[in-house]
């Protein structure tokens, strides 16, 4: 049995999914059959959320109806705001969002009894849409609060991406910035059985509720080997400073056996199909903000690392500097990932609920052999 162990579940296929397809041979990613880069180039994030949940892109009428409903739930509720305000300013933003989702779940009293907690498919779709609509306010308020700025109310005349940027920065974003942000949301939206999605499915498989699954997924996403990598890319950029420092920095980092964040992937071994689309968005942003230095550092580190290790960038590599150019604090990057991935997570929760089997793997025990408490006399029933 020990020989069969697949550490990290590497290479193990645990279930079917119709939501997305990761193809390691072509390094490609399809959402419900559509290449993700085509969706990012042509669709608003709201349409992709609809696609992930329903299986098809929305008609014009469906999109309009979804957008109208989304606007109803954009404002931070007093309960969520009150709880966020209780948290120390030094709390990690991921803990802030995790707590906010927990508060929203506890406030949904339809899930109060364990038996009702799972909910009907219709209820869970509604919950998913509400959570999706509420994320921008939570993430934007988090960043503003840490900067000592006031909450900004949502704007009904702006679509999801433009409103998100409005609520964060209090000014209307340039179309180049809105487009880059919208693309990033779509590219981060879904990624098959990654660690956080699998966590959500494990929690769902016990017949727990959708909020608990999302809270658990946020916990899994927080780690730097998963969602935290886009933050870590910026930390690396800050450490390096400028392109001319890349080579000595990299030589030292590799000698110290450091992992270079934003590179490598468990599944894509020859490049990540999401990178070119996000890199194009980063290039437009660098031009818009007149920051060629950021691109130079980006390109130099990529070239030197790939040359030495043959390990390619993943989506976090271009998205980290892109979010930084837009004005997001480094600590806000992973919460932005939550706002995007909440679509994929909730789609997976509903798929798991629709054909559930408790996820309960086995382990090969390698602890001490059986032993006994000195002087303990077993009862007759135990013998
Ligand atoms: N920097 C330096 N060396 C690396 C890196 C890296 N970024 N990635 C892999 N390697 C080396 C690793 O040290 C190991 O070398 P050796 O065989 O000599 O020990 C070899 O490549 C295989 O690495 P691994 O960690 O066993 O590969 P994995 O498939 O388990 O890991 C990974 C994938 C993403 C955890 C890893 O590449 C990594 O830690 N990357 C940096 C963190 C990062 O960018 N994470 C975001 C991933 S994308 C998130 C998502 O899509 O959800």
From TrEMBL:
<dbReference type="InterPro" id="IPR016143">
    <property type="entry name" value="Citrate_synth-like_sm_a-sub"/>
</dbReference>
<dbReference type="InterPro" id="IPR036969">
    <property type="entry name" value="Citrate_synthase_sf"/>
</dbReference>
<dbReference type="InterPro" id="IPR016142">
    <property type="entry name" value="Citrate_synth-like_lrg_a-sub"/>
</dbReference>
<dbReference type="InterPro" id="IPR024176">
    <property type="entry name" value="Citrate_synthase_bac-typ"/>
</dbReference>
<dbReference type="GO" id="GO:0005829">
    <property type="term" value="C:cytosol"/>
</dbReference>
<keyword id="KW-0816">Tricarboxylic acid cycle</keyword>
<comment type="similarity">
    <text>Belongs to the citrate synthase family.</text>
</comment>
<dbReference type="InterPro" id="IPR002020">
    <property type="entry name" value="Citrate_synthase"/>
</dbReference>
<keyword id="KW-0808">Transferase</keyword>
<dbReference type="GO" id="GO:0006099">
    <property type="term" value="P:tricarboxylic acid cycle"/>
</dbReference>
<dbReference type="GO" id="GO:0036440">
    <property type="term" value="F:citrate synthase activity"/>
</dbReference>
<dbReference type="InterPro" id="IPR019810">
    <property type="entry name" value="Citrate_synthase_AS"/>
</dbReference>
<dbReference type="InterPro" id="IPR011278">
    <property type="entry name" value="2-MeCitrate/Citrate_synth_II"/>
</dbReference>
<dbReference type="GO" id="GO:0005975">
    <property type="term" value="P:carbohydrate metabolic process"/>
</dbReference>
<dbReference type="Pfam" id="PF00285">
    <property type="entry name" value="Citrate_synt"/>
</dbReference>
<protein>
    <recommendedName>
        <fullName>Citrate synthase</fullName>
    </recommendedName>
</protein>
<comment type="pathway">
    <text>Carbohydrate metabolism; tricarboxylic acid cycle.</text>
</comment>
